[in-house]
Amino acid sequence: MQRTVASSSHLRRFHREGEDFLSRIVAGDETWVYSWDPETKAQSAEWLPAHSPRPQKAIRKQGAMKIMHVMFFDSQGILLNWAVPQGTTVNGDYYKWILQEKLRPAIRKKRPDLLESGMILLHDNAPAHRKHNVVELLSKWGWEVLQHPAYSPDLSPCDFFLFPSVKKHLRGIRFDSVEHIEAACNQAVRQTDASGVSSGIRGLVNH
């Protein structure tokens, strides 16, 4: 019911406000980037003659090394790609710091008009995002938080577009250090940004 109510409300708003609504949305979330991620079935698919036996593929686990990246983007491009230092927990205090010290300055530099027109933040219901100090900060800034139903990654542009787009450049490649993981992820983010991300925010309408 929450998914139905939220989706119906957002669609009605899109029909009223059109592109202005989408252009004000900033989507953000955290994701793990591993030292090795197996290719998807689609990526590793191969052509075989008719009636050939299906090739056997070993079950492969993700690499042991990993680093968390926090990313935010809007319909014009990537706003922030932040690698969380090893050993740091993304709790409410750290997420508040990212908003204050990283995201807001990035928006002020790259999209100054967005702060004046009234940006709309779309993040999920992770505990760090719901902490009272984060909620108070967003209220102080006057940032609207778009309603997001729980357990709905299919309604998050980061989950259905940004993270898969970035990670497709990394799958099937082994990295031997955290530094190499971070460098490769940064390059993948730049490639994704260069190829255009407007469809990520616009995809929210179809989803």
From TrEMBL:
Signal peptide: none
One GO MF term: nucleic acid binding
UniProt xrefs under InterPro entries: RNaseH_sf, Transposase-MT_Hybrid, Transposase_1
Record-given protein name: DDE_3 domain-containing protein
Organism listed in the record: Macrostomum lignano
